């Protein structure tokens, strides 16, 4: 090899080959996992802290890997997005969660909405709305009981095509929530023009809401802003009673977090719903 600058060596670095190899391996494993149905939807309750009522369930994907065990989404969603495998995966989560939550509704165990995370890749693809309509038709799930969670990073992206997508989803009755709010750099002017219904304040602010004056202040401001804009403020990552009490005092009604329940498998959430009902 000739010595023509750093770039040459950078391009052919051995661990980069390893990176590519690992990626191919993951791609092969994930495609196989979809076919073999190794993915599973977990559910985490969303509650009204004033009434303790379970108002929603968020669908969160898990990978039951045959040798590595249960893998959390942060370890495979980014790769799935890059490989566009998030499209079949996202469709699986949507369809399966509608089917499963419908049975909870039929059995009178639950009467709230179903929150589903949607990746920017799914929205950009073009036929997302068609897929949603088709899936809702097949599962007989009520569109007004669907809430789609889209991260702030996607919403604040320059491409505006997703605004039409969100408007179409809203026209069939679905709700839209902006997820991980405050993490990125949302423009407030922009926020007021978006077709959204709810703001989920990022967990990072709730994490130190009891210790840091700033986090509490930011939460308070977002809460105020949301209410003024006719959006529902929501806090995620509530782990303690102290955090819950602060949120209550700030007038935040709707929360989610380990303090109430961790995400659970379908069978476990079913039993949990039975236990809170009784
Ligand atoms: P997210 O949408 O912000 O989901 C909330 C995450 O915080 C979940 O992690 C949940 O288990 C966790 N969490 C909830 N309450 C608490 C708490 O009190 N303490 C702590 N420490 N954590 C809490 P999870 O399930 O590992 O999901 C991570 C991320 O993966 C999600 O963040 C979401 O961005 C993504 N994700 C999960 N399922 C899907 C999916 O079906 N599609 C897409 N596109 N993304 C998904
Ligand atoms: Ca979410
Ligand atoms: Ca979030
Ligand atoms: Ca997140």
From TrEMBL:
Residues 23-277 form the EAL domain. This is GGDEF-domain containing protein. It comes from Thiosulfativibrio zosterae. The lineage of its organism: Bacteria, Pseudomonadati, Pseudomonadota, Gammaproteobacteria, Thiotrichales.
């Amino acid at each position: 090899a000739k010595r023509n600058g750093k770039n040459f060596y950078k391009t052919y670095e051995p661990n980069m080959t390893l990176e590519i190899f690992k990626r191919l391996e993951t791609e092969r494993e994930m495609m196989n996992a979809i076919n073999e149905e190794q993915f599973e939807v977990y559910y985490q309750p969303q509650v009204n802290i004033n009434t303790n009522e379970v108002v929603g369930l968020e669908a969160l994907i898990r990978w039951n890997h045959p040798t590595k065990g249960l893998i959390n989404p942060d370890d495979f969603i980014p790769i799935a997005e890059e490989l566009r495998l998030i499209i079949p995966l996202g469709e699986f989560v949507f369809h399966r969660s509608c089917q499963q939550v419908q049975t909870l509704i039929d059995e009178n165990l639950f009467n709230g909405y179903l929150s589903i995370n949607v990746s920017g890749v799914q929205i950009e693809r073009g036929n997302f709305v068609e897929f949603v309509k088709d899936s809702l038709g097949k599962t007989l799930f009520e569109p007004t009981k669907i809430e789609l969670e889209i991260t702030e990073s996607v919403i604040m992206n320059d491409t505006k095509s997703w605004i039409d997508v969100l408007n179409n989803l809203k026209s069939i009755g679905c709700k839209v929530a902006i997820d991980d709010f405050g993490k990125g750099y949302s423009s407030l002017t922009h926020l007021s023009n978006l077709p959204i219904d709810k703001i989920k304040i990022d967990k990072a602010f709730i994490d130190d809401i009891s210790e840091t004056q700033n986090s509490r202040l930011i939460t308070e401001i977002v809460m105020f802003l949301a209410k003024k804009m006719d959006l529902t403020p929501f806090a995620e990552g509530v782990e303690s009673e102290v955090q819950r009490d602060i949120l209550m005092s700030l007038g935040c009604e709707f929360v989610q977090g380990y303090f109430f329940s961790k995400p659970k498998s379908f069978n476990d959430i079913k039993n949990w719903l039975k236990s809170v009902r009784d």
